[in-house]
């Protein structure tokens, strides 16, 4: 039988995502009640600009005092979609202290200080759900936390930022340069006026920290994630990738070491073979490739951002948390029992694609090969092209076999010091093989 007293929900933030959450709660109220087993009531909405017209939300629900809202004592669930570390962290912990569970889309806070939130939730017997924090509408967090809880995940690799994927896809398919592709992404609303968080990899790094923590049952903070942006990717890099049968994506990669004793998390642009499922992810879509010991290879694909897709993930969490409230139960909390160390980027085993501008004369290739050998890096392929305009220079492209990133980085630094190397035009990791 359905409980007649409604579960009360406080909404923190009413921007693109928050307004869509409020709309769905109102228009789908009967369906949500049937799925939960009790009505759900929007009890208050905390905003910064109270004078802004918000269609479908009763004016009396609007408040600028978010602290008072979460401390009311009659709130069952707080939905936090304001973003940022503060005041979100303080508001969420206050919600737990006053008997409310929390649904959040706050990747930055979870990546930086998720442990504090988990501890507060457990101490007060409340839930913390955050499906919307990574990859928008794509069901990813719950499968990792629940569906694959009995399996051993070895690798998570994915495209988790739609803005960067849109830009790189346009560069690949149209031959556009980075600036031109960014301008198109901005015009279409995929890129913010200040795209730094996306194109420099900060957004993807926060998501990588969250994914690594869940996948490997250990605490991984944002500071543990190696990060490299994609602003230096050029049309020439895409031309080289095509010669190898590859494309270029900004990837978030979380791996368990071969001996199982440590984990790594990193974000950087990489060449991946066209045969890999992630290579076909176009436009602003996201996709995450999971490699598990028993389940094998799984891929999760869909829209990774936007008001409606993100609100869909928030409402899914809201239904789950409300059901737990009715049953006086809790969902999965933090699973960090392994406490594996997070290794540095230098210990990651990967491959490099290196493009060099070199003197066009005998013996150069031998000098270059000697530097690779001295650093213990094996060469897979070499391509050399003379400059069309002459000038005594040539382009030398070297693709390595797998080696520790520190050895590969040291090789590049040694190459820069050779008199016959005029410049290192491009360095790109090769993944997904």
- Portion of residues in beta strands equals 25-35%
Describe the main β-sheet briefly.
11 strands, mixed
**C-alpha termini separation:** 53 Å
Helix content: 25-40%
Mean pLDDT: 94
Shape: elongated
Query: DSSP helix count?
Result: 14
Commentary on this structure:
The structure is a single chain. By secondary structure, the chain is of the alpha/beta class. Helices cover 36% and strands 26% of the residues. Strands 7, 8, 9, 10, 11, 12, 13, 14, 15, 16 and 17 form an eleven-stranded mixed beta sheet that branches. A six-stranded parallel beta sheet has the order 3-2-1-4-5-6, sandwiched between helices. Helix 5 (107-123) runs parallel beside helix 10 (202-216). The longest helix has 21 residues, at 307-327.
Q: Would you kindly provide a brief summary of this structure?
A:
With 433 residues, the chain is an alpha/beta fold. It contains 14 helices and 17 strands. The chain has helices at 16-27, 29-36, 66-70, 88-97, 107-123, 141-147, 162-174, 178-187, 196-199, 202-216, 235-243, 307-327, 364-374, 405-416, and strands at residues 7-12, 40-46, 62-63, 77-80, 101-104, 128-129, 153-159, 226-227, 246-256, 263-273, 285-292, 296-303, 349-359, 379-386, 393-400, 403-404, 421-430.
């Amino acid at each position: 039988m359905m409980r007649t007293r409604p579960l009360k929900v406080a909404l923190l933030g009413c921007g693109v995502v928050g307004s869509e959450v409020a709309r769905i709660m109102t228009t789908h109220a009967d369906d949500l009640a049937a799925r939960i087993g009790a009505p759900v009531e929007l009890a208050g909405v905390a905003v910064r600009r109270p004078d802004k017209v918000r269609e479908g939300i009763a004016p009396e629900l609007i408040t600028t005092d978010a602290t008072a809202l979460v401390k009311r004592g009659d709130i069952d669930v707080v939905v936090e979609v304001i973003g940022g570390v503060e005041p979100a962290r303080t508001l969420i912990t206050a919600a737990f202290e006053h008997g409310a569970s929390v649904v959040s889309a706050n990747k930055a806070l979870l990546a930086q200080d998720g442990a504090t939130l988990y501890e507060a939730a457990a101490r007060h017997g409340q839930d913390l759900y955050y499906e919307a924090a990574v990859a928008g509408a794509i069901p990813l967090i719950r499968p990792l936390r629940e569906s694959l809880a009995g399996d051993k995940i070895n690798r998570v690799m994915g495209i988790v930022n739609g803005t960067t994927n849109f830009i790189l896809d346009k560069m690949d398919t149209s031959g556009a340069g980075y600036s031109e592709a960014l301008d198109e992404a901005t015009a279409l609303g995929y890129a913010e006026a200040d795209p730094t968080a996306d194109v420099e990899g900060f957004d993807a790094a926060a998501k990588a920290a969250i994914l690594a923590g869940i996948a490997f049952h250990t605490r991984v903070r944002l500071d543990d994630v190696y990060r490299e942006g994609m602003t230096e990717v050029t049309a020439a890099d895409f031309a080289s990738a095509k010669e190898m049968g590859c494309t270029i994506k900004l990837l978030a990669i979380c791996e368990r070491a071969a001996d199982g004793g440590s984990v790594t998390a990193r974000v950087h642009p990489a060449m991946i073979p066209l045969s890999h499922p992630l290579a076909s992810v176009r436009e602003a879509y996201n996709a995450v490739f999971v490699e598990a010991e028993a389940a094998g290879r799984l891929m999760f694909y869909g829209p990774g951002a936007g008001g409606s897709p993100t609100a869909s993930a928030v409402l899914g969490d809201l239904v789950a948390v409300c059901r737990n409230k009715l049953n006086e139960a809790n969902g999965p909390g933090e699973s960090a029992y392994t406490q594996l160390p997070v290794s540095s980027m230098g210990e990651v085993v990967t491959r490099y694609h290196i493009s060099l501008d070199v003197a066009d004369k005998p013996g150069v290739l031998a000098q270059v090969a000697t530097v690779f050998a001295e650093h213990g890096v094996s060469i897979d392929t070499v391509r050399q092209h003379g400059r069309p305009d002459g000038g005594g220079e040539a382009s030398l492209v070297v693709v390595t076999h797998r080696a520790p990133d520190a050895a590969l980085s040291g090789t590049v630094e040694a190459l820069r010091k050779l008199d016959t190397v005029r410049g290192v035009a491009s360095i790109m990791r090769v993944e997904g093989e």
